[in-house]
Structure prediction request, 449 residues.
Amino acid sequence: MDTLLDNELGSVVVSKLSRRLLPFLFLLYIVAYLDRINVGFAALQMQQRFGFSDATYGLGAGMFFAGYFFFQVPSNLVMQRLGARRWIAVIMVLWGIISSSMVLVSTPRSFYLLRFLLGAAEAGFFPGVILYLKMWFPVEAQARTVARFMTAGVLAGVVGGPVSGALLGLDRVFGLAGWQWLFLVEGIPAVLLGGVVLFYLTDYPEDALWLTPEQRTWLIDTLRQERASHPAAGHTSVLAAFGGKVWFHVLLLVCVYFGANMFAYGISLWLPKLIRSLSGVSTFVIGLLSAIPYLAAAVTMMVMGAHSDRTGERRLHVALGAFAGALALGLAAYSSSLVLSIIGLSAALMGVWSIYGPFWAIPSSLLTGTGAAVGIAIINSLGNLGGFFGPWIVGRVRTQTGGFRGGLLAIGAALALSGCAALLVADSAGAAGSRALAEKTEKAFGSRP
Prediction:
């Protein structure tokens, strides 16, 4: 079967798109992800300063995703009208201001409110970028493209850990606490980059003057042919685009994403405190140690995204990553050694982050047009509620038991259920991809006569 790599012009265009769009979007997502998880480091000082219990912190950390839930679909629909360039610029400035305003937290209520507003402001960014990439990249390149983009999330953990740990060390400089410096400094880049978005991004391929006329024509024609060959092509009604069994598979995707985010944020937002509970090291060293699981996850994410595109298989990649992550977390939960815990958490994050590239290629193959805008937002908004429940459950269980084990086992079980749901999702490329994957496995390991 011919692929983009077999077409010289297509390969050149996809490569040019990647060089032009991905590094910048990658940077934006690093800033976004850091602003949503830096509260995990701030909590090392905030909880003691204000007397927040683990349950209070867990609820406040997860409140971000409540704001995400309520404002994601409206935000994505606004982007459809205004265009990605203008809307992404607006929401980046808003979330940067709110993130820096976290310096004003003094009570549980103010903590909950600002986390909620931060989630509401950032709600349209991630689904907007996923939709934006779908508008630019042909289907065959989408899983690896999304995987490369989402690697920014894990690299935010790699970079953000040491940076956040160092900022906490500025305690009492110019009268501000270390956690206040953390929020103030890490919120500013979003505001500045929001202005850059207006000048750098291009809304549609038709306006891409940085492509040659031949390249632009090939891209427009390829994307148009893909839309025309899709069963839902031409639907302008959201309900029409979601007809038949599509709703069922969208709900399955919500379940998959819910468990993945429950797992990912249940770990991410508690990782600094988990490391502190196993050691008495400084905040800077905690930052360095917390970067290790994210670094391991970044490598796996790229490998699995590329492999999913080569084989055309999505569901097994998602399911196997989920099962591996759940198993690794179960092992980490029963470890009392810092070294073994870091190894287990690294393997767990490698599993869960490896599924995101293949996962987001599935709704892109099921939905188009308005249905894609709303469907992707629904999957992301409902699925991200897992980011609310994950940290909250870990916090509640720790408040009651004094340890992390029960909470980690709960979010590990949720990820295992996500793997089961992934096996039931329709995937237009799934059958052919599964056969290709089976053939490659048979070649690799052999089938003895």
